[in-house]
Amino acid sequence: MFRINENYIKLPGSYLFSTIGKKVSVYSTAHPDKKIIRLGIGDVTLPLVPAVTEALHGAVDEMGNAETFRGYAPDLGYEFLRKAIADNDYRARGCDIDADEIFISDGAKCDTGNIQEIFSLDNRVAVCDPVYPVYVDSNVMAGRTGTYDSERETWSDVIYMPCTAENRFAPELPGESRTPDLIYLCFPNNPTGATITRAQLQEWVDYAQKKGAVILYDAAYEAYISEEDVPHSIYECEGAKSCAIEFRSFSKNAGFTGVRLGFTVIPKELKCGDVSLHALWARRHGTKYNGAPYIVQRAGEAVYSEAGKAQLKEQVAYYMKNAKYIFNGLKEAGYTVSGGVNSPYIWLKTPKGMSSWEFFDCLLEQVNVVGTPGSGFGPSGEGYFRLTAFGSYENTVEAVDRIRTLQF
Amino acid sequence: MFRINENYIKLPGSYLFSTIGKKVSVYSTAHPDKKIIRLGIGDVTLPLVPAVTEALHGAVDEMGNAETFRGYAPDLGYEFLRKAIADNDYRARGCDIDADEIFISDGAKCDTGNIQEIFSLDNRVAVCDPVYPVYVDSNVMAGRTGTYDSERETWSDVIYMPCTAENRFAPELPGESRTPDLIYLCFPNNPTGATITRAQLQEWVDYAQKKGAVILYDAAYEAYISEEDVPHSIYECEGAKSCAIEFRSFSKNAGFTGVRLGFTVIPKELKCGDVSLHALWARRHGTKYNGAPYIVQRAGEAVYSEAGKAQLKEQVAYYMKNAKYIFNGLKEAGYTVSGGVNSPYIWLKTPKGMSSWEFFDCLLEQVNVVGTPGSGFGPSGEGYFRLTAFGSYENTVEAVDRIRTLQF
Question: Which of A305, B95, B122, B404 is such that its CA lies 20 to 30 A from the CA of A198?
Answer without folding.
Answer: A305
